[in-house]
Design a protein that fits this description.
Blueprint: H1 2-28, H2 38-43, E1 59-66, H3 77-86, E2 89-96, H4 100-110, E3 116-119, H5 125-132, H6 154-159, E4 169-172, E5 178-183, H7 184-190, H8 198-210, E6 222-225, H9 233-238, E7 245-247, E8 253-255, H10 260-274, H11 287-290, H12 292-295, E9 299-305, H13 306-320, E10 326-328, E11 336-337, E12 342-348, H14 356-369, H15 372-387, H16 396-402, H17 416-430, E13 432-433, H18 443-464, H19 470-498
Parallel strand pairs: 1-2, 1-3, 6-9, 11-13
Antiparallel strand pairs: 3-12, 4-12, 5-9, 5-10, 7-8
Helix pairs in contact: 1-4, 1-5, 5-18, 18-19
Length: 499
């Protein structure tokens, strides 16, 4: 019953978004300064301007997520420096990351949007429907006016296209980010090295549970941190699973959950769970709550974004007063999954940015941010931050989540830690397996994305916890296929042929 209610609510939200967009277009049709409709915008090119002729907006409103324990304040260094570098005043509504997508859906439904809307799940159903119904500006006709916005990695830009057009200003990230993050003192205490094979990984988790790695004489530790019902894709990569989809020789798309390699990885996670080597409440515990186990000497390893999470853990040590070194491990079995190369991107709302001149003033902000001078400034303040006393440092990840530039996608400092992270990330990138579906938008996936994901996520969780066996998991995969998964595969195959 609960799932049915959630599903009905989800479709209600989508209908509201569509109704709002249609009514907005209707009501704006008689307003002289209203934005043109999506169709009109694409058929009549705007009058070209040079970015040097455009003034950056004096004030920009935006919504963004935060991942730290508290949201950055208006007068914090990262915000005041971004304002100085870009020449504008930022009015930011910060929302906790774990409820951000829900907040975005509500904001879009209400129609009361800030000028800039940061989107994390760029393929979310409500987001795609909002774009297609005309809630956000199509930036395609304006990019030639802002040369710095055309300097993003071309693959990243392609991955963010919607129906062949540019709506998102990327928040760039490395194409491969994740890896094993390990407490170095625990490694030394159990006399082991960072794992490079699946067997070594398993043996290390066992040692972290059974060999008193924190040396307190108690049996109170475990191996790996998990949270929010997320199983790191790297584990499936190690077992040879495709990255989301596999394209066969005949061009057909095969979902990862249909492959033997994926099920090998799933069985491995089930084994880790049954032996108490991972977070027991992984399906329900939120990120920042789960991470307390690492601060409090309960767990020794995590698989997370190396460039963001390692500095985050060091940053937290000033609050916990629990100091230790961390090590980034090599790619296990010489395999890892490549990602989209972004952590979402910014959309510009038509309800708050009504004219082309207003749009250009917002684009000028992002263009300035991506100038060589601005990027050098962001690198400089990040490097200087690293040299400050720990209690005076800001969280670099908060800065990276604020800005839409590739200036800090790799750790910029000259410390041993930053050098170690850059080297490890290069190793992972060299063996990254790409997701062939990136940049392809299946209509059925947009329509049924939440329903399809829920079927697989629930089945995976129940299998890991031992509530269903392999036959039960396979039955849920068949349900996924009948519910729309097979149709998604057909649509992706057609789109892939057209690339």
């Amino acid at each position: 019953m609960l799932k049915s209610i959630k599903t009905l609510w989800f479709y209600f939200v989508v209908l509201l978004i569509t109704a709002f967009a249609l009514s907005a277009c209707s009501s704006n049709s008689s307003t002289t300064n209203a934005p043109t409709s999506p169709a009109a915008q694409s058929s009549s090119s705007p009058t070209k301007q040079s970015s040097s002729e455009v003034q950056v907006a004096s004030k920009i409103t935006m919504i963004n997520a935060y991942f730290s324990n508290t949201a950055p304040k208006k007068d914090e260094f990262i915000i005041t420096e971004t304002e100085r570098i870009t020449g504008t005043d930022l009015d930011i509504t910060y929302v906790p990351a774990n409820v951000y997508e829900e907040k975005i859906n509500v904001t879009m439904t209400s129609g009361d949007m800030p000028q800039v809307v940061m989107i994390q799940n760029t393929n979310g159903t409500s987001v795609i429907n909002g774009i297609r119904s005309g809630m956000f500006w199509d930036l395609t006709p304006y990019l030639d006016e802002f040369p710095n916005l055309k300097k993003f990695d071309q693959q990243v830009i392609e991955n963010l296209k919607v129906d062949g057009k540019y709506y998102f200003i990327p928040r760039p990230r490395p194409l491969v980010r994740n890896g094993t993050i390990i407490r170095k003192d625990w490694l030394e205490n159990v006399g082991m090295d960072a794992p490079a094979t699946i067997d070594e990984f398993y043996d290390l988790l066992k040692a972290f549970k059974e060999k008193d790695p924190d040396q307190n004489g108690q049996n109170d530790t475990y191996g790996m941190l998990l949270y929010e019902n997320v199983i790191p894709g790297d584990i499936f990569a190690w077992h040879g699973s495709p990255n989301n989809w596999r394209v066969d020789d005949d061009g057909s798309f095969i979902k990862d959950v249909e492959t033997a390699e994926y099920k090998d990885g799933l069985a491995f996670v089930r084994k880790l769970y049954s032996e108490g080597l991972v977070t027991k409440e992984f399906a329900i515990v939120v990120r920042n709550e789960a991470r307390k186990d690492l601060y409090n000497n309960k767990v020794g390893l995590s698989i997370e974004a190396l460039d963001a999470v390692v500095p985050f853990y060091y940053f937290q040590q000033e609050d916990t007063k629990n100091y230790y070194d961390m090590l980034a491990g090599p790619p296990i079995n010489n395999l890892s999954f490549s990602t989209s190369g972004h952590n979402g991107g910014s959309l510009i709302s038509k309800t708050s940015v009504k004219t082309e001149d207003e749009l250009r003033s917002i684009l000028k902000y992002f263009d300035t941010m991506n100038s060589e001078e601005a990027k050098s400034e962001f690198v400089r303040i990040a490097q200087e931050n690293e040299k400050k006393p720990a209690e005076q440092q800001f969280n670099v990840d908060d800065l990276k989540n604020l800005i839409n530039t590739d200036a800090l996608i790799y750790p910029p400092g000259d410390s041993d830690r930053d050098e170690m992270l850059r080297n490890r990330m290069a190793e992972h990138s060299a063996v990254g397996v790409a997701d062939p579906s990136l940049g392809l938008i299946s209509p059925t996936q947009i329509e049924k994305n939440e329903q399809l994901n829920t079927i697989i996520t629930d089945a995976r969780t129940k299998y890991i916890m031992g509530e269903i066996d392999e036959a039960g998991f396979d039955a849920q995969v068949e349900l996924w296929k009948k519910t729309g998964g097979s149709q998604v595969a057909k649509e992706l195959a057609e789109l892939y042929k057209q690339k």
